[in-house]
Amino acid sequence: MDTMRDRFAPVVSRLLDEDPRVAVVLAEIGKDGFAEARRRHPDRVINVGIREQLLVGAAAGLALTGLRPVVHTFASFLVERPFEQVKLDLGHQDVGAVLVSAAASYDWPAGGYTHMAPGDVALLDTLDGWTVHVPGHPDEAETLLRHAVAAGDDKVYVRLSVQSNAQARPVDGERFVTVREGRSGVVVAVGPVLDAVLEATEGLDATVLYATTVRPFDADALRRATRAAGTDVVLVEPYLAGTSTAAAGEALVDVPYRVLGLGVGRAELRRYGRVEQHTAAHGLDARSLRERISGFFGQAAAGS
Questions:
Q1: CA 70, CA 214: separation in Å to the nearest integer?
Q2: What is the CA radius of gyration of the chain?
Q3: CB-CB neighbours of 213 under 10 Å
Q4: Over the stretch 79-99, which tens digit does the pLDDT of each residue have?
C-alpha cells in the first residue's frame, strides 16, 4: 500500500491543473514530487530553499494576492520552527493556507528529535481558527487534502504519517465516525491509531469513535456517544498525550465526566530505534492500550 505522503504530490498536482488559485510552496523537502507540475505551472510551484520562516511568509504573501497556497515540509519545520510566521503572517493578517506536514510525531526516528513533532497540534491549539485533519489511511488523506484546498480561505493543517490503518473509513472533514458501540465508556481514536484501539478494546463494552478531523472538535458526536455509553472518555491521539482533553471537557461541561488522555509522552526518547519501538515506548501499541483503557474503565475483557 502506498503512504499518505505518496498521495500528496499527485493529488495536489492535479489540483494545480484544476484550480488556478492553487499554489504550492516548498522548502526543498518534497520538491522532486512536483518536478512535472513545476514545468506546467512555474509561477505556482515555488521552492524557497531551506528557509522555513520564508516558506510560511511566502505562502501568506500568495494568499494576500488571492491564491490558495499549499505548504509542505516536515512537521517540526512547518509548525514549530516558523511558528511566529504561522501566528503573524497567516493568523494576524487573517489569511489562509493549507499546511501539509510529513514525519508526524516520530515517523523517521533516525532523523532524531529535530525531525519529531509530537507537540504540533497542541501548538496550533494556542491559535484561533485552525482546522486540523489527521487522516489514518492514504485514501482518507486524499479526501481530506481535497477538502482542505477547497475550504475557501481557511487555515488548515493536514498531518500526514507513514503509520496507517488497514482500511479507509468514510470521512467528511467534519464529523467523528462511530466504529463500535458499547455501554461502559467511550474511546476516541484519532487517525492512524484506530487499528490499535480496536484491537485493544476487543471484548470491552465500549463505544469507539474515529476522528480524522480534530479541530473543530466534534463535541456533538462525543455528547451523543456518552448518553448511551457513560461519561468515562479515553482519548487516544498519535501526538502529545492530553492534547484534546480540554476540548472533550468543554463538550461535557454540563455533566460529570472522567477523561484520560493517551498519546505521545513528553519524555524524549534518545535512541533512534524503529517506529514500532517508539509506539510501544509511548504505550500506543495494542497491548499497552488494552491495559490502560480497561483499567480506566474498570473492566476486564473476556480471556484477558
A1: 20
A2: 19
A3: 24
A4: 999 999 999 999 999 999 999
